[in-house]
Write the structure tokens for this entry.
Amino acid sequence: MFGVLQKILRHPEAVTVEEVAWIISNEELNEQLFSLADEVRRKYLGDEVFLRGIIEFSNYCRNDCLYCGIRASNKNVERYRMSLEEIYERAKIIASMNIKTIVLQSGEDPYYTKQMIADLIERIKKLNVAITLSIGERDFEEYRIWKEAGADRYLMRHETADEELYARLHPNDSFQSRVEHLKQLKRLGYETGAGSMVGLPDQTDLSLAKDVLFVYQLDADMVGIGPFIPHPGTPLGNSKAGDLIKTLKLISLTRLFLPDANIPATTALGTIHPQGRQLALKCGANVIMPNFTPSPYRAQYALYPNKICIFENDTACGQCTRKLVENTGYRVSEDFGYRRKIYERSSCGL
């Protein structure tokens, strides 16, 4: 059974979707898989964990994704938009704590124009930080301008690489459109992030295997993987939540396929299990994203319910996550956290 894991390390291009699905379904491989993922992560990336300070600056969204608590049709959301000055002041706090990446995240909110975002990037860049944008699908020209303004990374999770499931979950959108946006971001030179949810209704092990192979074929620089958590204000509110172990397996498999990628221990994992993020670090993850969204906005950015850390002091996450990393046996990195390209890929395969 261990041979298929070695095949991933030696000949990942030859691994089939059926083989990956078999690993996901086979509980007897869990211990070996988790141990091997940690070994690979330590070999290529050492014991460092990157902190990326996140600012969730708007919960307006023009999309109506069936799983998302801030979907356009949810009338029970108290909407907010942070001003550019508020966002910048938060960025200053993050930089002052020696956190070298600032993540600007929002719903797909066209209120923030191309120039507004570009001006904000240029201003924050002067704080000597890397900038990750996570603001959804925008015009290709906007991506270009923001890259020229100084943005380093763009995170756009694909959520599921099962095209039929994607279509059911995303009204008026398609998986191929998401792929084209991700490919364009890579062409423009962004460190490009994708990622998926584990435990979506009607998702199979074969669906999850497609997610693993998709990020490998994309050669994603970042991969965010978290459990599906049903939100009562959505059509999927009565669905079953995603599973901790299966999510850890996706993280571990992704680490084997992409030894040098940056993989976060997501907040959603910490929400479904008190040791979720710590376990993810032991299964191949190497990033944590402390939340610096100020009150009262933080509680209103509710993609899913019962999110951890929303009622604590709104700058406490930085120190808290440092302690979490150290107590788990790793150390916080002091650098910018760019992907360390260990090996070259001949093509992205898409």
